[in-house]
Amino acid sequence: MTNNRSKLKITFNAPAILTFALACVVVQVLNVLTHGESNRVLFSTYRSSLINPLTWVRCVTHVLGHADWGHLLNNMMLLLVLGPMLEEKYGTKKVAFVMLATAVATAVVNMIFFPNVALLGASGIVFAMVLLSSITSTDGHTIPLTFILVAVLYIGQQVYEGLFVADNISQMGHIVGGLVGTALGFVMSRGQMSRYQR
Asked: How many helices (H) and strands (E) does the chain have?
């Protein structure tokens, strides 16, 4: 007698998101083992000589570093909620590109405007995904009301906190991430709509 019940299987459903999350955990373990030295050298971005190859490496790798486990877990919770949905909709390559573009954009802005600040963490990527997820569909002639509300609430909060709240959180990284997610979200949504309309 055969068992017709299908077996449950665990799937690696979001390769870009899961690989990124795993890399962040490995980097945090390394950070603990090196007493913060690995974050300083490889996993945070700050203004340094443009002829130093590590300056350019850190423009990408700073999103993997986190100040502590709490910082990491807060980012990973939102990333793991939003990321798989976006990866299913847009595909692994496009989501990976959003993450890469956000990393580079936040690093460049930080180096130009905040030369004495070391930036690290995936918060910019999380904000990019928050704004990207609010753009569910657009035909090039409409803007979803949900996107407007999310943009006003999230970016407005970051501007307020940047001006009036003294903390160690980079509102700039959040805002730049949100802007990257918004821009790429409209570009990718428009591309998907044109594909379906053919």
From this structure: 8, 0
